[in-house]
Every structure is written in structure tokens, then in C-alpha cells.
Amino acid sequence: MLGGKNKDNQFATGGTTLLAKSVEITGDIKFGGTLEVEGSVKGNVFAAADSDAQVNVRDKGLVEGEIRAPKIMINGHVTGDVYSDKHLELAAKAVVNGNVHYKVIEMVKGAQVNGSLVHIPEGEVAVPAPKAAPKVAPTPIKAESATNT
């Protein structure tokens, strides 16, 4: 029903977001629903651990940073650690340069992991809430003069 109050549908949980091949994002991404990465992300990608959020890094997709999501499917390149709290799939063209933390993993022939595979025991959470970045006060720049003695 259009305009209904059903909060279980995909739009209520974040819908689907596509980062197309021509998109390059610098900075962290927090998302809900499904995130499709065909372009490149220079930053961390994370979703709430208690959600059903899923990130898909497609064959031309690139992420330079951590990925933290309950469900992750990688068929592109990731440079950084990967944390999956529910299900992780590494497809044939997947290349991960970093450690892979998982509860359930599927790895297809051809997938590469240049790091450690770390199983997360039941009862532990792989996707903790991200920590706030410390605030850094700007440092004034001092001019120095050269003295010859």
C-alpha cells in the first residue's frame, strides 16, 4: 500500500544506494539497506551491526578503507580490513589486501586475501560502533628565520 506505515520494507531500512563507476568518494560512508559500490571509496564504509545492511563491492569497485557491515559481498578490490557480523562472500574477482573478520564465509576459486582470515565466535560482535574521531585543535604555523652565525 502506497504511503503505508510498514517499516519492514527496504525503503524504511535504507533502500539501495548505487555508487556508479564514475563516482569517487573521499570520506567515510555510513549506510542502511544495501550499498552497491561500482566506483571508488577512499574512506571507511560501515553500517549498524544490528541491521540487515549489506555492501556489495562489484568487480570494478574499489574501497580503500575498512568495511564493517553485517553482510558483505566482494567481487572488486578492498585495501583495508573487512568485518562481517553475519555473512561474507568473496567472489572470483575479489582482492582483499587486509584482514578478513567473519562469522560465515563463502570464498570462490580465484578470490584473493592478502591478510589473515579471522573467525568471529558466536556471541561476539564484529561490527562495533565506530569511534568518534578525536578533535584536534589546529596548530598555528610559526615562521622561522634562518640565522647564520
Automatic annotation (TrEMBL):
> InterPro entries this protein is in?
BacA/B (IPR007607)
Any one Pfam family here would be Bactofilin
Family designation: Belongs to the bactofilin family.
What is the protein's given name? Cell shape determination protein CcmA
Organism expressing this protein natively: Saccharophagus degradans (strain 2-40 / ATCC 43961 / DSM 17024)
